[in-house]
Write a structure and sequence with these properties.
By secondary structure, the chain is α+β, with helices and mostly antiparallel strands. The chain has helices spanning 17-25, 27-36, 39-49, 58-65, 80-84, 130-134, 137-141, 184-189, 192-195, 262-269; strands at 2-3, 9-10, 101-103, 108-114, 120-123, 126-129, 147-153, 160-162, 167-169, 173-175, 198-205, 210-216, 224-226, 231-233, 238-242, 247-253, 259-260, 273-276, 281-284. The strands form 4 sheets. Strands 1, 2, 4, 7, 9, 10, 11, 12, 14, 16 and 18 form an 11-stranded mixed sheet that branches. A 3-stranded antiparallel sheet has the order 3-19-17. Strands 8-15-13 form a 3-stranded antiparallel sheet, with no helix packed on it. A hairpin with a 5-residue loop joins strand 1 (2-3) and strand 2. Helix 1 packs across helix 2. The radius of gyration is 18 Å and the shape is globular. The two termini are 33 Å apart. 41% of the residues are buried.
Length: 290
């Protein structure tokens, strides 16, 4: 279940939870799971979603998920993937401009976790170390007592993502792996974020210290497309996009320069993800607050 920023509870989720529950909670399902999480399966699905035949799925998807195409830039969709990575008009995703407020990099369902107890995170009953996420012990130590923000995208979300603040980024680091779904059912069963393929970069931000921005692939989302190499980046500038399916963006921030908004902390503690739109504030640096 989710809460919006006004505290209202929502139950809707475009994820096919029945099939996912079967795969992760039954023996026959787990046998099927070994096949579906292989990257080559996602490559096959991606090939289909790039074919003209896949365009037949566009209208049913629009109807089922109440997509308002007037919010998006005019385009011709030759396949479902063209539609899936459609670009939204800037007016529908305004980016918070206050330099003391961190801007959400994507539309998502958000949870926040304190990094403590030897850099261990407890996410949906699975324990992670930051080092296992990054595969870099030295970098992981820099986020001791910091915050991990997990931003889970479902198939009906906008699947382009941006930079949360101005800064200078390193090159991308690719971590190979399989491609589990990122639905809560899977997160409760497996250490999905250390098993899945992922890409991250380190950003020295203007207002929040050092930050890691990580994109995690998921089943049928083997392809993460990032636009830039090392160099300066701007708040709200598009960083990249996910091709078809659900996926996740993870942010790591140090606790000296960043504090998540109170509602995100409280909702996570109460077992709710918070519905966020790209560009909204998700936390702050106290030195900028009145």
């Amino acid at each position: 279940m989710y809460k919006d920023r006004n505290g209202n509870i929502h139950n809707n989720d475009a994820t096919p939870t029945g099939m996912i529950s079967f795969m992760y909670n039954t023996l026959p399902g787990r046998l099927l799971l070994k096949l579906t999480t292989r990257p080559w399966v996602s490559n096959v699905v991606r090939g289909y979603m790039r074919s003209s035949v896949s365009g037949l799925h566009i209208y049913p998807f629009i109807k089922k998920n109440s997509v308002d195409l007037s919010e998006y830039e005019s385009a011709t969709y030759h396949c479902f993937n063209d539609f899936f990575i459609r670009k939204i008009r800037a007016a529908y995703r305004p980016v918070v401009e206050d330099p003391g407020l961190l801007a959400a990099p994507c539309d998502s369902h958000v949870s926040v976790f304190r990094i403590e107890d030897g850099l261990v995170l407890d996410i949906k009953s699975s324990h992670y170390t930051v080092a296992s996420l990054l595969r870099n012990d030295e970098l992981a130590r820099e986020f001791r007592d910091g915050w991990c923000i997990v931003m889970r995208l479902t198939v009906d979300n906008y699947h382009r993502y941006s930079y949360p603040d101005n800064g200078v980024k390193t090159g991308d680091v690719f971590v190979p792996g399989v491609l589990h779904t990122v639905s809560p059912v899977a997160l409760e069963k497996l250490q999905v974020f250390v098993e899945n393929q992922r890409v991250y970069t380190v950003i020295d931000t203007e207002n929040f210290g050092k930050m890691v921005q990580m994109e995690v692939g998921a089943v049928c989302v083997g392809r993460i497309v990032n636009h830039h190499g090392p160099g300066p980046v701007r708040r709200g500038e598009e960083k990249g996009y996910f091709e078809f399916g659900g996926s996740t963006v993870v942010l790591l921030l140090d606790g000296k320069h960043f504090t998540p908004d109170t509602d995100l902390i409280e909702n996570t503690e109460d077992g709710f993800e918070t519905i966020i739109k790209m560009g909204e504030r998700i936390g702050y640096n106290e030195k900028y607050q009145g």
